[in-house]
Design brief:
The chain is an all-alpha fold. The protein is built from 3 helices and no strands. The longest helix has 15 residues.
């Protein structure tokens, strides 16, 4: 029998915000379309949203910063 464990996302202190859900859904749609590189993902998000932090366009730099912030 496999030992039970929690995935990191199972240990959240609160439900995802609407922004986090929209962003996650958009990233999943990009992956489903075969987009797996950072420039392609950033272009996909800029074309279909949601907007980047503070309503800015996504860049590779702010995407990586936002993912680090959300993972903290």
């Amino acid at each position: 029998m496999t030992a039970l464990y929690n995935e990191t996302h199972q240990n959240r202190s609160a439900e995802p915000t609407a922004y986090e859900s929209l962003l996650g859904d958009a990233i999943e749609r990009a992956f489903a379309q075969g987009i797996h590189d950072l420039p392609g993902l950033v272009a996909y998000l800029n074309a279909g949203g949601p907007s980047g932090p503070n309503g800015q366009a996504w860049t590779p730099e702010n995407y990586q910063q936002e993912m680090a912030r959300l993972a903290a």
